[in-house]
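Before we proceed, please read the two lines closing this message. Tell me what the token row says about the fold.
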Amino acid sequence: MGDKKAETTVSHLLSIADGASVGLSAAAVDALNQSKSEMLGSSHSSRYDAASNRCYIRLYEHKRNGEFETEIHSVYDAQTDDLLAFARRVNGKETGYVFDVHKGPWIPPANCTSCTVGVGWDAAISYMDEIMTGQRN
């Protein structure tokens, strides 16, 4: 399931809405989508949680396209194909969000001083690290 999700998700065209969220005009998004990206790194992994009978897939992609460098992390519920969390960094500007409604509100760990409940790069990365290691309660 992880391989299939990685094939269908990673390296897709940037939407105008996604571009606008990091300050790109529609023309800049179009130019970015038409030019070739240099893949700097990509990976995917999966983890089955026997307690909840859920399988999670984490995707990572880091690429450069002209003056834009983008790093994207995401975690999906493999059975429902729900996006549970994402974190994106474009030229150093970080965004992220946790959408997991199955486990209830996500509370940041005590050592994450910059985390807000479910919002921001730090919160999303911490959530993904927890869910992929099985350390989330």
Summary: The chain is about 25% helix and 35% strand. The chain has one domain: 2-133. Residues 2-133 form one domain. The mean pLDDT is 78.
